[in-house]
Write a structure and sequence with these properties.
3-stranded antiparallel sheet, about 25% helix, alpha+beta, 6 strands, DUF2442 domain-containing protein, about 90 residues, NE0471-like_N
């Protein structure tokens, strides 16, 4: 039997290196990039313009399209199951 895999439908990055992640089941979580992601991943996205401007939904999850072109093989994507388990967050207004 197939396990339900939540799908990310929207992401909103903020200047404090957090991202509100919206799922198809209505859940909203806050990903604290520096705290919730491995240091190897955070080091690749910690430049402000990359974090803010390359943050996208790709393949149904939070990703950073660091190379541009939305190539799934050249992005940094985060497991949606991992994200779904993060602490529930209230919606913020950007």
């Amino acid at each position: 039997m197939l396990e339900y895999i939540p799908t990310v439908v929207q992401v909103i990055p903020y200047e404090d290196y957090t991202v509100d992640v919206y799922f198809d089941d209505g859940k909203i979580v806050c990903c604290h990039a520096e705290k919730d992601l491995s240091p190897n991943i955070f080091d690749r996205i910690k430049e402000y313009h990359i974090f803010m401007n390359k943050c996208v939904v790709l393949n149904g999850t939070l990703a950073w399209d660091v190379a541009g072109g939305r190539n799934v093989n050249e992005c940094i994507d985060i497991d949606p199951l991992y994200l779904h388990e993060l602490k529930k967050s209230k919606e913020r207004i950007a």
